[in-house]
Write a structure and sequence with these properties.
By secondary structure, the protein is an alpha/beta fold. It has 4 helices and 5 strands; from the N terminus they run E-E-H-E-H-E-H-E-H. Strand 2, helix 1 and strand 3 form a beta-alpha-beta unit.
Length: 131
C-alpha cells in the first residue's frame, strides 16, 4: 500500500506530500500521523502541501481532522506551502480549516511550531513572580 512518509525531527513530525492525494491515502496519512504522535510523543506536526495543485473538500477535511486529532494528542499542526489556487478552492468550498495554522514556507512553519511548542512547555513560567 502506498504511504506518505512521516519523518521525525526531534519532537516534531515533518510530512511532505509529493503525490496526488486520494481518499485512501489521506485516511492512511491520518492514521500514520496520530500513531507517530502517540508512539514518539511528538509536540508538533508540519505538513508541506506545496506540491498539491488540487485539494478537494475531503482532503481539506482530512487536513482539519489531522490538526484536531494532533491537538487532542498534545501536538500543534502547521500546514505550509499552500498554492493560491488551493486556497481559492478551499474558500469557494466554504472550508475554513478550523484549528489549522498555516505558513507560506517550511521555515516560517517551523518557527510557528517552535514558538507554539516552547509556549506550551513554559506554560505559566512566563508570568512574573508575585512577591
Amino acid at each position: 500500500m502506498e504511504r506518505i512518509p512521516v519523518l521525525r525531527m526531534g519532537s516534531l513530525l515533518l510530512i511532505t506530500i509529493q503525490v496526488d492525494m486520494h481518499d485512501k491515502l489521506a485516511l492512511q496519512l491520518q492514521d500514520d500521523v496520530t500513531q507517530r504522535i502517540a508512539d514518539w510523543g511528538s509536540t508538533g506536526v508540519l505538513i508541506d502541501i506545496s506540491s498539491l495543485e488540487i485539494v478537494d473538500s475531503f482532503i481539506g477535511r482530512m487536513l482539519a481532522n489531522i490538526a484536531a486529532m494532533s491537538r487532542v494528542l498534545g501536538a500543534e499542526t502547521v500546514v505550509v506551502g499552500m498554492q493560491p489556487a488551493v486556497a481559492i478552492t478551499l474558500v469557494e468550498l466554504g472550508m475554513s480549516l478550523p484549528g489549522v495554522r498555516t505558513a507560506l514556507s517550511v521555515e516560517a512553519g517551523m518557527e510557528l511550531l517552535y514558538g507554539a511548542v516552547s509556549g506550551l512547555q513554559s506554560g505559566s513560567d512566563n508570568e512574573p513572580d508575585q512577591d
